[in-house]
Amino acid sequence: RRSSPALFRALRGAGVGIEHGGTDDGWPVLLTAAAPPEVLDLDAPTSSQEVSALLLALAVHSGERRLRVIGGIPSRGYVDVTRSVLAAFGASVRSEPVASDRAEGSGELFTVRGPLTPPPDPLHCESDASSAAVALAAGVLTGGHEVVVRGGGTASRQPDAAVVGALAAFGCDTSDSD
Question: Mapping DSSP to helix (H, G, I), strand (E, B) and coil, where does residue 103 land?
Fold first, then answer.
């Protein structure tokens, strides 16, 4: 039931055809492709996933494209994870602040250079730290029973992996055996 009004506004502005199968600005959706503009605007995103999706879409194309994000990016750290994945596939993403006299007009400008190319070596995919956080938090509520989540570890680049440190601060044994 998640909606993505900012994402759909950005796509419409780029000329993408959008047919909603559910609610307005919600999923599922059928998209009709359009040539990407030189600059794509995303105003007031409600999720880092909206930013990541547009960065991925722009990186498919040769040459340089820009994504201008106006407003804050929720869970900004996940955009950095996306940028590192894009780098593994040969794309580059630079960012710089967008200044404004109005706080709500500031943001970030991403310059994306594609196209994507397959990496020469296999990639390691991290476990989903958001899902692991739910399981770990549930473990706290079990009254002392052990909960084991494999594949996360302290080396994760995902912001939600910080739940391990938060649980340790509350006295949980969060030993890392990965």
Answer: helix
83-109 confidence digits (pLDDT tens): 999 999 999 999 999 887 776 778 999
Q: Are 93 and 55 in contact (CB under 8 A)?
A: yes
Q: Which amino acid is at 70?
A: I
Helix 48-59 to helix 5-13 angle, to the nearest 10 degrees? 30
What is the Cα–Cα distance from 13 to 15, expressed in whole angstroms?
5
Q: How many residues does the chain have?
A: 178
Residue 112: how many other CB atoms lie within 10 Å:
26
What digits encode the pLDDT tens for the residues 4-38?
999 999 999 999 999 988 777 788 899 999 999 99
DSSP 38: S
CA terminus-to-terminus distance, the chain: 35
Both tokens of 52, joined, read: 């990541």
Please report the sign of the dihedral spanned by the C-alpha atoms of residue 7, residue 13, residue 19, residue 25. positive
